[in-house]
């Protein structure tokens, strides 16, 4: 029995949605002032730039989705021959959900609720200067 | 052979990872509390956010290379003398920094078109580490110990060069698998034509970048989740006991790097988060061995090269990284 396959336009649209959600979440994180909870000050600008890049990539995928829908193209990936997207709906769902996992976890967890000590211990708060990474410690 | 080996390797790795997780996760019957989930989330998101700019830079450069630089140009620039070829291949990543995920298809295509096999393998091994993006990421992650960035790049180059020279001496036949008809699907000439036909190289590069982001991003998300789980659930005493044994800590982190399959542009941040529990030498072994040989690149290597050649490369790389990281820990690293 042949399983249903996912159309190229769906893949492009799903990629556009995931990239858009990730980009928008980063912008929301930066605007809410929560970025310092996660990254060192030296990475604020690169992370904000990443949000812009993600949104640009989302836009390009959206255009590709519209093109694929209009032309009925059978190719959902780029033309390098090495990026074939998953054909089965379940695999496609798992792939795209995986990228949304950090957003869901960010929504359900309350990082700001961690005490300063706990947050410092687990890298959720910037320590002095750039020492944050070495402050990510394991629980006793 | 390929069909029987890959599922076996994947199943063995999954079983090993599950067994390791079962052994190291120390949780009582009450399960994870909400604060544990919060801690897990904060570490998980933190690792991802720190890696993201470097990953995006990597995919942008990879897309540029894929669309605007032909294999022919790289082949023409490749010296014919073995020593020079190994040196050039080891440093190719400085000019063309591509992650290991995108590197193997490019290299097997280059070998098929006449590039010396040992040169291609040196590029596969050194390229993910000996490049400016990875150097910058390591420098940022280990800003208190900049020696780590130099040691990482130096050791990776040395290991790749020695492996390449040994392959030059030992390889008598083509190391590629015979069935590589699929190679022709992604020839750059064809890509260029398709790109120009379908509306320009720039659009092709942007699409390639986002596809590559999805291709390698999944390994990054899984790796970050494993690292966060590791940091949230594993007891520090257990790790400190492991870290006190020099050989065991090196081997453990090399195995972990293999299983986690992190992108080389982001693994420095994961390694830095272990710095409280392990010596710099063991972290260096993690940083050098992981990008060279990990679960996902091993699968790609087995799919492209003959099994005996891949096993030889993995064994040789492991021994050289172990020895090199131990020597650097003794004589160079703080």
Structure description:
The complex is a heterodimer of chains A (140) and B (334). Chain A is mostly helical and 140 residues long. Chain A has 2 domains: 1-72 and 86-109, no CATH class; 111-140, no CATH class. Chain A has 4 helices and no strands. In chain A, α1 packs antiparallel against α2 (44-71) and α1 runs parallel beside α3. Chain A starts with 7 loop residues before the first helix and ends in a 19-residue tail after the last helix. Chain B has 334 residues and is mostly helical. Chain B has one domain (33-331). Chain B is built from 16 helices and no strands. Chain B has helices at 2-24, 34-68, 71-77, 82-95, 100-112, 117-126, 132-141, 147-170, 188-197, 201-233, 236-244, 246-260, 267-273, 280-292, 295-304, 307-331. In chain B, α13 (267-273) runs antiparallel to α14. Chain B is globular, with a radius of gyration of 20 Å. Chain B starts with a helix and ends with a helix. At the A-B interface, α1, α2 and α3 of A face α2, α9, α10, α11 and α13 of B.
Summarize the structure.
By secondary structure, chain A is mainly alpha-helical. Chain A has 2 domains: 96 residues, no CATH class; 30 residues, no CATH class. Helix content of chain A is 56%, strand content 0%.
Features:
heterodimer, A: 140 residues, mainly alpha, 0% strand, disordered C terminus, B: 334 residues, 16 helices
């Amino acid at each position: 029995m042949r399983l249903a396959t996912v159309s190229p336009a769906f893949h492009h649209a799903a990629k556009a949605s995931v990239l858009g959600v990730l980009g928008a979440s980063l912008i929301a994180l930066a605007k809410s002032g929560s970025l310092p909870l996660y990254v060192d000050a030296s990475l604020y600008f690169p992370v904000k730039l990443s949000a812009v890049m993600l949104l640009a990539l989302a836009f390009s995928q959206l255009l590709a989705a519209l093109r694929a829908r209009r032309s009925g193209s059978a190719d959902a990936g780029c033309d390098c021959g090495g990026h074939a997207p998953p054909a089965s709906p379940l695999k496609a769902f798992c792939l795209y959900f995986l990228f949304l996992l950090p957003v869901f976890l960010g929504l359900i967890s309350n990082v700001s609720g961690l005490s300063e000590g706990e947050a410092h211990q687990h890298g959720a708060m910037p320590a002095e200067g750039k020492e944050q990474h070495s402050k990510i410690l394991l629980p006793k | 052979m390929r069909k029987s080996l890959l599922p076996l390797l994947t199943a063995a790795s999954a079983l090993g990872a599950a067994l390791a997780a079962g052994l190291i996760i120390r949780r009582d019957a009450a399960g994870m509390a909400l604060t544990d989930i919060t801690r897990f989330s904060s570490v998980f998101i933190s690792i991802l956010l720190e890696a993201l700019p470097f990953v995006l830079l990597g995919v942008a450069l990879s897309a540029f290379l894929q669309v605007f630089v032909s294999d022919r140009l790289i082949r023409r620039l490749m010296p014919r003398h073995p020593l020079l070829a190994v040196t050039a291949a080891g440093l190719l990543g400085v000019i063309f920094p591509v992650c290991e995920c995108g590197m193997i298809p490019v290299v097997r295509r280059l070998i098929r078109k006449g590039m010396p096999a040992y040169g291609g393998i040196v590029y596969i091994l050194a390229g993910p580490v000996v490049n400016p993006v990875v150097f910058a990421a390591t420098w940022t992650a280990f800003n208190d110990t900049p020696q780590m960035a130099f040691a990482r790049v130096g050791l990776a180059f040395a290991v790749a060069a020695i492996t390449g020279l040994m392959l030059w001496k030992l390889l008598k036949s083509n190391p590629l698998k015979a069935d590589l008809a699929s190679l022709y699907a992604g020839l750059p000439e064809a890509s260029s034509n398709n790109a120009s036909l379908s509306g320009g190289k720039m659009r092709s590069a942007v699409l390639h970048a986002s596809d590559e982001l999805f291709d390698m991003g999944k390994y990054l998300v899984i790796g970050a989740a494993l690292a966060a789980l590791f940091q949230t659930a594993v007891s520090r005493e257990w790790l400190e006991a492991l870290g006190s044994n020099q050989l065991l800590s090196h081997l453990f982190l090399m195995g972990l790097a293999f299983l986690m399959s992190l992108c080389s542009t982001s693994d420095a941040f994961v390694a830095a988060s272990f710095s409280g529990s392990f010596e710099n030498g063991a972290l260096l072994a993690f940083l050098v061995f992981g990008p060279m040989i990990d679960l996902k690149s091993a699968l790609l290597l087995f799919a492209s090269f003959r099994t005996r050649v891949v096993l030889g490369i993995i064994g040789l790389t492991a021994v050289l990284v172990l020895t090199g990281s131990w020597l650097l820990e003794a004589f160079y690293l703080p």
